[in-house]
Model the fold of this input.
Amino acid sequence: MRKIHFKIKRFDGNKEWYQDYQLAYEKGKTILWALTSIREQFDPTLVFTSACRHAICGSCGVKVNGSSYLACKTSLDEVLDTFKTDYLTFEPMGSFEVIKDLAVAWEPKMEKMEKVKPWLIPSVEGDVEGGFIQSEEDFHHIASPTDCILCGICASECNQLAVNDGTYLDPFILNRAYRFAVDSRDGSPEEHIRPVIENELWKCMHCMQCATSCPKGIPLTEQVAFLRQESIRMGEVNNQGAKHAFAFVNDVRTKGRLNETMLPIKTDGLFKTATTKVPFALRMIKKGKINPFHMPKAVEGIKGVQEIYKYAEEVENR
Done:
């Protein structure tokens, strides 16, 4: 009989350890079935969270072999096929404080979320008695971000949160800021966006882990791009991220490619580049990775590239 081997990370508030369990394989089951079966059949002390079992409440996020999943929605067969093994390791989600075993604390995250004012700030143009009428087209702008169930999968997979000192906002918080900033009924989008700018918006690595792991398919990285564009429209251009974006855009516009030697100077300025980047650059030069004397020429077809820029600007200004 086929057996599935589970190694589950345990935590009792003081110490951590891994505990092994085995279950007979059953076709068509979920990760949550496995956890529930282990608790009911072998170990009633095992702690994890779940509620709706229908991918609505978002409470059953867990890491399996290093990747985060919504346990009630994810097929056990899918996971076994993905990793090509019958040995699975379950751990609590990353970037969260662990309470016990696989259960994590949400209170610190909710405190961070309050920064972006995740509620509707009514426009003064609304009809007090009749409410705020919204077109179908306007509704579709908020339909996808409203699908967020606060499962935390995106935060668990976020590479920036894994290394950040705590100022960077979780992807689901950025989603909330976006959701209200684009709502046609909201009268003060900047109040949602400003806190995002002040909390390291430009540090998103665009690794796409949040978007590809989201069980609701929310395009989180597109939302980050929108928030960055809005921050520039708001005049927030005197920061490293915006300067880097402008340098990137201008290099491609003029030459069709990046000038990687000048890019750090355009982004950080000459002094900061000299004091922080030069030692690293010297090691790169020594290893033959970069040539400081190479000034890239314009690519063939640069006029076509510039026509694309021109067309994009015309579409934006319509």
The longest helix spans residues 270-286. Residues 105 and 311 are 48 Å apart (CA to CA). The domain at 106-233 is CATH 1.10.1060.10 (Fumarate Reductase Iron-sulfur Protein; Chain B, domain 2). The chain has a mean pLDDT of 93.
